[in-house]
Amino acid sequence: MIGFIGRRLVTAIPTIVLISVFVFLLQKLLPGDPVLALAGEDRTPEMLAYLREKYRLNDPLAVQYLHWIGNAVQGDLGISLRTRQPVLELIADKLPVTIQLAVMALTMALLIGIPAGILSAVKKGTWIDFAANLVALSGLSVPNFWLGIMLILLVSVNLGWLPASGYRSFADDPVRSIQTMLMPAFVLGTALAATLMRHTRSAMLSVLQSDYVRTARAKGLRERTVVLKHALRNALVPVVTVATLLFGELLAGAVLTEQIFTIPGFGKLVVDAVFNRDYAVVQGIVLCTAVAFIFMNLLADVSYRLLNPRMRDAS
After folding, report:
1. CB contact at 8 A, 236 and 203
2. At CA 70, angle to CA 287 and CA 40, rounded to 5?
3. What is the pTM assigned to this prediction?
4. CATH class of 94-314
5. Where are the alpha helices (H) located in the chain, listed in sequence order?
6. Tens digits of per-residue pLDDT, 44-76?
7. Where are the domains of the chain?
């Protein structure tokens, strides 16, 4: 297992380098000049020249990239042109918000999607199976922004049960923090639950037709024991992999959901950075997101081998 992790980490290095190159070059294609935005309306040619020299914008692209990636390796992702804060500090400030939202959304998705997938597979061809598939299709089809707006109108405006927007740190006020995160987590969780339900149903249908499941039934074991103890454990292997990758997507930032509920997470940070042409922030966020995706892929592979002894022996 250690050797497998080491090989994956080695192969991840060229991927991160290629991603960093694409991030740096694509950022340069954005319209507008960040120096003009930074200098303000009362800018002078001397001020523009000073800013270009200060931020090394007069250097060739290759030199700019090497300077940026060299600092990034040392933990320096640059300074925000708008707020004058270190990019790493901004990311560290927003990351706990996005992690909390991602954990709550994935928890809701697991609590809804896996039981629904099991029930749909066991009751294949019945109205329960049809209803579960209908709900899953609805979860995939309904746009997050529409569902979020409808929840605000119903739960917050009409019923007054939960706050419509805003965020409170979990460390400052745990109850209020959970209340502000419930609706956005539900909006994200329903779409993830639909995906998990479909994967769980497919895996369970395949496992329930296996020889060892028929043997367990032939021994006279109760159906509940056969499904939950023998079939579910093997069916969860691909589901855990999918759930891990979905969590990586959530960490990338739910832009629309965070904008609707005014949550100061990764999504809102990157939108503000793009609109303000804050190159350093966009580059830092995308690079950190790419590293997070690679890490989640590695975690998914490790969990797959831990759950599947045959894959563990092969590695």
Report:
1. yes
2. 70
3. 0.77
4. mainly alpha
5. 2-28, 34-39, 45-54, 61-73, 87-122, 127-141, 144-151, 174-208, 211-218, 223-225, 232-251, 255-260, 266-275, 279-307, 309-314
6. 777 777 777 776 777 777 887 888 788 888 878
7. 2-73, 94-314
